[in-house]
Specification:
141 residues, OB fold (Dihydrolipoamide Acetyltransferase, E2P), four-stranded antiparallel sheet, 2 helices, 8 strands, globular
C-alpha cells in the first residue's frame, strides 16, 4: 500500500512551504523516521521524516517549488509494489508549473542582471521576481 508524504503544517499561520533539499532520491530505500527532505516556510526551516518504511517511489514536488502545506510531496511504496497510476498524474501538474517558470527564470539569470548589489544572495526564482519588479522599486533614504 502506498504511503503519501505531505509538506507538513509547521504552525497555525503557516500556509506555504518550499522544499529546499531532497536527502533521498527516487528509488532509494527509506526507513520510518528517517529524514527525507528539508522544507522552508516563512518562519522556519525543518527536516521532514519519512512516515513509513519502503521505497521512495515518486517525488512529486521538486526542489524550489513553493506549495501549500499538506500538499502531496512524495509517495513511498513497499518493495516490489507498483506506483499507483493516480500519482503519475500528480507529477504532470508540477512539470507544467516548472515549464511555466523556466522561461522567466532563465531570462532573469543573465550575467548583466545579476550584477545588481547583493542579488546573488537570493535563490533564482526570487532573483527573477525581484528583477521583474526592479523598475517599480523605490529606495527610500
Amino acid at each position: 500500500m502506498a504511503t503519501e508524504v505531505v509538506v507538513p503544517m509547521l504552525g497555525i499561520t503557516v500556509e506555504k512551504g518550499t522544499i529546499v533539499e531532497w536527502l533521498k532520491s527516487e528509488g532509494d530505500l527509506v526507513e520510518k523516521g528517517e529524514i527525507i527532505f528539508i522544507v522552508e516556510t516563512e518562519k522556519v526551516t525543518t527536516e521532514v521524516e519519512s512516515p513509513a518504511s519502503g521505497i521512495l517511489a515518486k517525488i512529486i514536488v521538486p526542489v524550489g517549488v513553493e506549495v501549500p502545506v499538506l500538499t502531496l510531496a512524495a509517495v513511498i511504496t513497499e518493495p516490489g509494489e507498483e506506483l499507483p497510476a493516480e500519482y503519475a498524474t500528480q507529477a504532470i501538474r508540477v512539470h507544467q508549473v516548472r515549464q511555466k517558470l523556466r522561461p522567466r527564470v532563465s531570462r532573469c539569470l543573465s550575467p548583466r542582471l545579476l550584477r545588481r548589489p547583493r542579488l546573488h544572495l537570493l535563490d533564482p526564482l526570487r532573483q527573477c521576481l525581484l528583477l521583474e519588479s526592479w523598475p517599480k522599486i523605490r529606495v527610500l533614504t
